[in-house]
Amino acid sequence: MRQEIVLPKLDSSMEEARIVSWEVKIGDTIKIDDPILIVETEKSSLEVESEVEGTLEEIVVDEGETVPVGTVLAYVSSGKHSTDQKGSSDHNPVKEENISPGKTERIRVSPAARRLAKQRGVDLTKIKGSGPRGRVILKDVAEAAANVVNQSVKTENKVIASIHAKGKRVNLTSMRKTIAQRMTASFMNVPQFQIKKRVDVSSIVQLRQAVVSSIEHSAGVRLSFNDFLIQAVALTLKKFPRVNASFIDSEGDPYILEHEDINIGLAVAIDDGLVVPVIHQADQLSLIEIAEKRTKLVEKVRKGLLKPEEMRGGTFTISNLGSVGVDEFVAIVNPPETGILAVGNIIEHPVLTNRYETEIKPMITLNASFDHRTIDGAYGGRFIAQLCDQLQSGQWNIFSTARS
Hints:
GO terms for molecular function: dihydrolipoyllysine-residue acetyltransferase activity. This is Dihydrolipoamide acetyltransferase component of pyruvate dehydrogenase complex. By secondary structure, the protein is of the alpha+beta class. The longest helix is centred in the middle third of the chain and has 18 residues, at 202-219. It starts with a strand and ends in an 11-residue tail after the last helix. The radius of gyration is 24 Å and the shape is globular. The chain contains eight helices and 21 strands. The strands form six sheets. Strands 11, 14, 17, 18, 19, 20 and 21 form a seven-stranded mixed beta sheet that branches. It has a four-stranded antiparallel beta sheet with strand order 1-8-6-3, with no helix packed on it. It has helices at residues 111-120, 138-149, 151-163, 174-189, 202-219, 225-239, 287-303, 377-393, and strands at 2-6, 16-22, 29-30, 35-40, 45-49, 54-59, 66-68, 72-77, 97-99, 107-109, 192-200, 245-248, 255-258, 264-266, 268-270, 273-275, 278-279, 316-320, 339-343, 347-352, 358-371.
């Protein structure tokens, strides 16, 4: 019996991966759950385990190739299927439609991709699908639309490239390609607005100075400013559930999904891009617990050991560039989340007090970007105002998760 080894969907956002290395060779005997190859997604390098057993008969996709989820990678003979796992074609089934453009070849296309193509005037017959079995997916249409809009820019770039032929060409990694695609899709498809507000963080600075040494000694963990941000955002999201939500563009019946859990993603910079580990149920954690989880996750990011489940399920993202001296910036919403918070450096600013006197206080600038389909400006403004109140309140759950 000849069986297929297909590229599985290793996380919810994965659409393709690059084959880094095969850990087995033709003629090897493979058992179920044996690691057989390493792939690189937009987020990390991962091992793929076999879902069948037998003898490796043929390798179809060579090292270095990038293929979509569901692609047949190899064939195994004289084995059996796992009783508790299925191929990736059974994971997250996607409704699709067949379009027959006259007498030309049939096109496999998802409903969302077909709708976007109609809105943007994109000819589906000219798109090569990157989904399983060549299906045209939303990303393919978004890229085609962007290509049409930016054709003049690309032409100019070619002229520039020919003039500056001595420049260094840097090929994109899978991670950088995916970041480019996701951010382009977000910018094109998500109507976004920003709200900026400066906030006094004196209470946080004073608390860290007062207790950081004793906490580090007793708990064995260092409290960072990000830990206070994470707890403040999580507690504020409890009062503003519409921000802790996603706009679901369901075919013909869009709706807003308010998430039960509050899961905060923290953008971490690496050499070739950004990785966003997620602290799940952050509203249920003390500052110490948040610091412990953040420390472990960031360490895994730096070592390239972050697991797919540690990047899934985010409902809101924080991006803090204060550590590299950035005063303020604007971040792009990370779909399907509704909001992302961009945080700048702590800067000493003169502040006018109620007595018409000036004091120098540590201030940060918060710049939040929101999906306008989910919330409006007034709701976003109230969310930011409440977040600033929380940051200035001095009320923190340091050791206990008990809520007042």
